[in-house]
Amino acid sequence: MAVNWAQVLFNSSVTGSIYLLGAVGLSITYGLSGFPNFAHAEFITLGAFIGYAVADQLGLGLPVALVVAFLVTAVVGFLCYRGIFQPLAKRGATIIHLMVASIALGFILRHTIGAIWTGCPYYFTASWHSYHIGPLVVTGLELWFVFAAVTLAFVMHLILTRTKIGKAIRATSSNPELALASGINIDRVIWLTWFIGAGLAAVAGVFRAADTVVLTTTGWAIILPIFAVAILGGIGNFYGAIAAAFIVGLAENIGVAILIGLEFPSEYRMAIAFLILIITLIVKPQGLAMLFRRA
Q1: Quick one: 221 exposed, middle or buried, by C-beta within 10 A (0-12, 13-18, 19+)?
Q2: CA 59: distance to chain centroid?
């Protein structure tokens, strides 16, 4: 069977865009807070449901849905850290305690979301025009994916390199003790990263749901590749996360093409994220962080 490699490469950029939106917040909050937040999956799910409610149930369209989903989920993320994880950390909770607390929080959020929206599958009703560009078939929604990821990368680069808060984030990520001694309010820096990280997860959730279906497991369906991106890119490293997102996206889509050629179910694509995660942890636990300045 002939493989349309141009389509595979474009699909890889689309997949990488979703993973980038979901992984940036997870990577930065992990780097600053010191534990993996498994409730990040539910931030993605919450964003998906809020986006659906705004875009379809209220009929306000995708752009408004993205803004509302970002803001609401960002506030939820901030409150979760401020009300749960920060008090636990100040009382001497270990990484295991915080990780288990994030899993518990995830269950609470997931079932709360299911209770509010009845847990039924929902579908975005908006239709997207398809464009035929040579061997490529591109939809308007996919162009939104790529545009959002490129915009995120550019804006975050400007924030991290040109603003005081960006420099504070980088300093806190690199050396918290030195940052504190320099007069940086570490707590406020972490609050802001949780706010932004949860909001970006919501944007990833809206796009993922608009492309597939809105479910209470929407976040869990992609949390493994997102963790693979965060670890491959180097925990807390923004530039590494950009490279890792598109590496994982490329590996996944090439893997799907190979699976289809071998007549295996494409659902096995999740094993690719597992392999990348395991190989990275064994061979190069620091990921791509050595190739990029820490950010």
Answers
A1: middle
A2: 26
What is the pLDDT at residue 293? 54
What residue numbers bound the domain in which 122 lies?
5-291
CA torsion 26→68→141→111, rounded to 10°?
60
How many Cβ atoms are within 10 Å of 157's Cβ, its own excluded? 15
DSSP code per residue over the chain:
----HHHHHHHHHHHHHHHHHHHHHHHHHHHHHSS--TTHHHHHHHHHHHHHIIIIIS---HHHHHHHHHHHHHHHHHHHIIIIIHHHHHTT--HHHHHHHHHHHHHHHHHHHHHHHTT--B-------EEEETTEEEEHHHHHHHHHHHHHHHHHHHHHHHSHHHHHHHHHHH-HHHHHHTT--HHHHHHHHHHHHHHHHHHHHHHHHHHS-B-TTTTHHHHHHHHHHHHHH-TT-HHHHHHHHHHHHHHHHHHHHHHHHTT--GGGGHHHHHHHHHHHHHH-TTGGGGGS---
Number of domains composing the chain: 1
User: To 5 degrees, how large is the angle CA 252–CA 255–CA 261?
Assistant: 145
Q: How many residues does the chain have?
A: 295
The residues, ordered by sequence, that sit 6+ positions from 188 with a Cβ below 8 Å of its Cβ are none
pLDDT at 207: 93
Q: What is the CATH number of the domain that holds 176?
A: 1.10.3470
Taking the C-alpha atoms of residue 295 and residue 281, their distance in angstroms, rounded to an integer, is: 20
pLDDT per residue over 182-228, tens digit each?
888 888 999 999 999 999 999 999 999 999 999 999 999 899 899 98
Q: Which residues of the chain have pLDDT under 70?
A: 1, 265-266, 289-295
List the structure tokens of 128: 């997207």
